[in-house]
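Consider the tokenized backbone below.
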């Protein structure tokens, strides 16, 4: 049995994969100009915001903690270097999509290629992190350190929590939802149930101008 509860990490990764599927579907959708759709879709902006918060939390709060924990282990440090390099490779893929959305001369085919590049880069990173980095974290950090990272992650989401938390839990299992909501104070759990999630579900995330 794992000593660390990694529900939050896997749930966030699942949400990112879900949105990668939406992005590739939107950019391959016949009959609509995917540039017009993606440029105004709430889902694209929310995906970018959530991903930025997640990766920033890892870069600034998790990887430095891990570097101390695996100091003197070249294999562990090399893996952390790879995690940071993979994060850095994802940002240009997103920037290239935004540039294509702003470029009236860039056609739908180009946008589809860029979406595939993003899906490959981020999808590969998520698998690498789950296959190698999470087991290293499990073996290297204490429960107190892992909880410290979890608290830091919430700070990076900040005021966007009422939108990002429902985004993260959209489609998650009942057990994952329960585990993620359990640490929240009662008023925030009530806000999630009565306000945040209904507001999120009312959005047509991947429609033009939604």
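A designed sequence for it:
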């Amino acid at each position: 049995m794992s000593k660390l509860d990694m529900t939050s990490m896997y749930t966030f990764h699942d949400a990112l994969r879900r949105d990668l599927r939406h992005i590739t579907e939107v950019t391959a959708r016949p009959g609509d100009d995917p540039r017009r759709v993606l440029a105004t879709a709430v889902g694209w902006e929310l995906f970018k915001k959530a991903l930025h918060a997640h990766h920033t939390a890892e870069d600034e709060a998790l990887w430095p903690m891990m570097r101390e924990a695996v100091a003197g282990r070249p294999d562990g440090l090399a893996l952390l270097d790879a995690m940071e390099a993979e994060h850095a490779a994802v940002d240009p893929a997103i920037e290239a999509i935004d540039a294509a959305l702003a470029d009236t001369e860039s056609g739908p085919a180009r946008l589809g290629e860029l979406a595939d590049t993003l899906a490959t880069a981020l999808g590969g990173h998520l698998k690498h992190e789950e296959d190698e980095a999470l087991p290293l974290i499990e073996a290297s950090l204490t429960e107190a350190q892992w909880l410290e990272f979890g608290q830091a992650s919430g700070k990076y989401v900040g005021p966007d929590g009422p939108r990002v938390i429902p985004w993260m839990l959209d489609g998650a299992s009942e057990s994952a939802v329960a585990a993620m909501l359990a640490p929240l104070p009662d008023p925030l759990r009530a806000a999630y149930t009565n306000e945040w999630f209904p507001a999120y579900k009312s959005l047509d995330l991947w429609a033009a101008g939604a």
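The mean pLDDT is 92.
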